[in-house]
Amino acid sequence: MERVGEEETGTSETREYWAVPLLKLLGYEPILQVKAEVIDGQTFAISHRAEEIASSEDINPSPPLHVIGCKLSLEQRSPSGRPRLSAHGLLQEYLNRTEHLWGIVTNGFQWRLLRDCSLMTRLTFVEFDLEQIFNNENFAEFGLFYRLFHRTRLPDGIDDVDSCLLEFYHQEALQQGGRVRDRLRDGVEEALKLLGSGFLQHPQNEELREAVMRGELSEQDYYRQLLLMIYRLLFLMVAESRNLLLDGEDIDKARIYTEYYSINRLRALAERKSYRREGFQDIWQGLRVTFSLFDESWRGQLLGLSPLNGDLFGSKSLETLDSYAIDNHDLLLALRHLSLYENRGQLRRVNYAALDVEELGSVYESLLDFTPKIVTYEGIYVFKLVTGSDRKTTGSYYTPPELVGQLIKSALEPVIAEKLAEVSRSSSSASILLANPQKGKNKDNLGTNKDNLGSETLPPLSLQQQQEAALLSIKVCDPACGSGHFLLAAARRIGKELARIRTGEVHPSPEPLSQAVRDVIQHCIYGVDYNPLSVDLCKVALWIEGFCKGYPLNFLDHRIKCGNSLVGVLDISVLKEGIPDGAFKAVTGDEKKWATAFKKRNKEERKNIESHQLSLFDNLEISLEKYAQDWQALGKIPENNTDDVKLKKEQYLSRHSDKNEGWWRDYSACNLWTAAFFMPLTENNLQLLPTTEALHRLLEGNKTTTSVVKAANQLAQEKRFFHWCLEFPEVFEEGGFSCVLGNPPWERIKLQEKEFFASKDEAIATAKNKAARTKLIKQLAHTNPTLLQAFEEAKHDADAQGKFIRESARFLLTSKGDINTYAVFAETVRKLINSDGQVGVIIPTGIATDATYQNFFGDLIQQENLSSLYDFENREKLFSAVDSRMKFSLLGISGKATQNTNFSFFLTQAKQIEDKNRVFQLSPQDIKLMNPNTLTCPVFRTKADAELTKKIYQRVPVLENEKADAELRGSLGDYPHQATGHNPWGISFMAMFHMSNDSHLFKSEAGEGLVPLYEAKMFHQFDHRWASYDDQGNTHDLKLEEKMECDRTVQPRYWVDKIEVENKLAGKWDKEWLIGFRDICRSTDERTFISSILPKTAISNKAPLLISRESNINLLSCFYAYLNSICFDFVVRQKMGGTSLNFFIVKQLPVIPPDWYTEEDIEFISSRVLELVYTAYDMKPFAEDMGYSGEPFIWDEDRRAILRAELDAKFAKLYGLTRDELRYILDPADVYGEDFPSETFRVLKNNEMRKYGEYRTQRLVLAAWDMMGY
Description:
CATH class of the largest domain: Alpha Beta
Number of helices: 50
CATH architecture of the largest domain: Alpha-Beta Complex
Strand order of the largest sheet: 17-16-15-18-19-21-20-22-23
CATH superfamily of the largest domain: Adenine-n6-DNA-methyltransferase Taqi, Chain A, domain 2
CATH topology of the largest domain: Adenine-n6-DNA-methyltransferase TaqI, Chain A, domain 2
Number of strands: 32
Largest sheet: 9 strands, mixed
Distance between the termini: 75 Å
Helix content: 40-55%
Strand content: 5-15%
């Protein structure tokens, strides 16, 4: 290989004399691939396979091995331009596009092990540099190479990719990563407590202790200083571990920093217990010098270090702690906790170079839930971190990267693709114009570069420059950004695309990729969070990710902000309408007298203003445009050195303060408008409460009471109002963000008493019930009035936020019922994007299936804005701290209409989204077809389930359609049958006796004039005697011999006066029997829709009644039989998202209408219904209404199974199903195989297999189908 010339690639020599022989020693039998593989129109010239494996396909299924010449780079394309990708990029792309998981790429010197990582945005691999290993005689590392690259570690072929040793190692590493994160969190928690107590206890820090004691330094501010110190250490540990700080060419300067100033030096000291002597504080003084090397001073330049400056290393950022001392012992012990963690009984060094920034972020973010406390024990100050009994773990915050990756793929990548497509279209148009200039005389100049004044046209931008500009114009936001997990992923993905364009490489090398990510963070990334500590943490994460040698830290204050994303003005035009009267509704702590007075006053003021002019002001849009221009100019300031960053910060502060008169006026106006919802309506605030007149005067430039404005602005700071249009005017001038990503909080907007008192009063927090807790809270008036006041203020704040959400008109679609933050965040993010934008968020699936949010989801459907919804069950603990039964979704929303939406349900792993059987498409038309009343989302396990259910709905109308005929015919297109006869069976629902509210009517013993109270558990399909109570109040199923007794009746738990029953049914139902169904059921039960004809008696509310206007009882028996058919049950299971069969679900089920049944159909069905129902004398009234006067039919299990099978086959035919479709309904595995991801009647099948040794229902139904000649 050394003899290969400089102009040669050395491919043949590398393969023949080195790589292939070494591979054979590693257990491979490499086979040269003569023919390139073609996938999706792209060629992949992978050089070798692990060995020859016979296959029915043309492609060898053994693992791919790609060997190139020793003179070629793994990361860069050949200068000739062929092949189209670098060697690394070629193999990575191949793995991403095929079922192969693992592969090897080498140029003889560097050997890389690659895994499929289609959702990753960075180069991810294990590399061994054999040249360096041999030169350094590092045989231990070669031994590791041998063990890891040996043939036995890779899969044999495609079929065992998930079970090979490498995949086992990979999955084990992922699980261990979660454990390491928890250990790191514990270490950081200990470090914070040690530092906090260490500063407080040092003898020289009397002034610090006095400041704390007098309240001049709050516990929260002290905690923030400690966190900032930890963030500095974290940043430097990561930067040093990744060799990002030092100039490698100046060895002397690098040595001086490493030996005397580096954090790594202190880590080494901390790990040596013998060094941690007490009584000295010189290490802290030295650490302060290290920090100063990275501010804007000259010190760092002496060592070749570029100043980082910014908020993290600014000279005043840590000014509180800078003034005090800490003992070496405490500081080094804290560093030890940051540097080491315990794993399986051994201490291991934290490898900060390998840890993802978002993993570190989740560790630190989990600490932000603590409440800092400074207490004294016998005169000694101790810093504590207090939390409640339900402390959140790191897993609460850590969104698995595979979920983040899916949202990047579904929400951000379409934006990237569209931006680049616009450039291509623009370039094509420009080419046409250049060829025919006359065509473009009245068109905008395309592909040109104008200065800000537009007075001079600069040379046209190249295609690459246009593509770069397009990518850097993308605006991505996370409105609840936390530690910045989604923002980091977005920055990497856009950065990767930017680096691709700049380098021409599909997988760019680290240096251009880092620069691109830094540029993206500077231009594209926005975030908001309510917690200021989270905002700090997000900035640190972005600084680490975007750090490049020789550059200062990015300025982020204008993009990463602290505020309440849900409270404030989103659209500034709302000010035109004045303050809503609903702002003055009284909540906890308000005085109703003053609430009523101010509501009346506000209404009168608005009327008075409106009588003189059409709106409060007319020039708001112009001022917003001016702000947008200012912010755009701010964004153009480079960040190449500390002077640039300093200028940018000064410019931002001058624009974002009272120095900018116009902006400050509008900011104060937004605060007035929002403060009206939050300011306590009490006599003490009479002179401070903002009303519409005060808002109007301020906007008109007239004199406004200074105290009112000042109070509103102060309240805005306290409550962290966030006015989107004023904080990011450059974004909203263009209609909104390009993409919004995130995992917003899932919690009720209501003060949770146990959580509030968890860190404040343990007795109240752990009270055995609410009554006991309420009693203890009342006692606070005497025992701790300060805490009581804090509780009442917190309760007022929570109620006021609820009032804002309900009354501000900002949340028209999600403000009903108990408000949950995930729902109002969903409505917010939808409004944050522009007309071409995309949303990708993780929220509970209830947003799509719960009736509470049907207005929001229905509007998404009506406007055709739903792009995707992937539903997960947390059974495999994707979120470790969340209940395994919790269902959440990756929700995609588009700013423009989309014709088809991707859906998938019951997922447990992100990779299942790639399973074509699990993912299906529904159009808005399809959802209107299946759920016309609520427009909520049907739930399907597979594409086959969806297609079959859709086919049924295309043929069969719903039970009751609540929409008007004209509206329906317009929206249902090809299925007008859904609009004919809104309720053809004339069905209404009745819940007769509520088990709680009507319990006073229930008697525990039988008596004259009393009738049994039937409960849902007492009946089943075609069986009104399923279960009975005994004298002890326990239920038991009736035995076969008991059911064969025609005079046997069931025993209820309660009885009710017959007159009460008659009163309930008067004017609604005149038969001596009833049709009921079970309200409580699940899609995974043996059967889901369980209906029965019952004697006329009292019925529990959990067994709702179906009251029909149909007078033909034989025809009505067809309706009843249909409800118990297996085909109908299949559809019901697709519509069940919970355990309650609510009326709105039943109304939207497909039900064969009366006029579909022929006389032959009615005779066939009703005769079988009669035999199945009339098995006891108490059902004689039903038999007589059907024209039958004989004796009851003796219960015969085998005969009944045949009758039911015949009914099931009959209804399948009426549905228009094929035999294979019926087979699928009975058991999908019978059609698609045992590994098919759907199930229909698994429990029924399993029960029958145990009882009969066969799936009897399946055999009988298919036999009936065949017998009837269908």
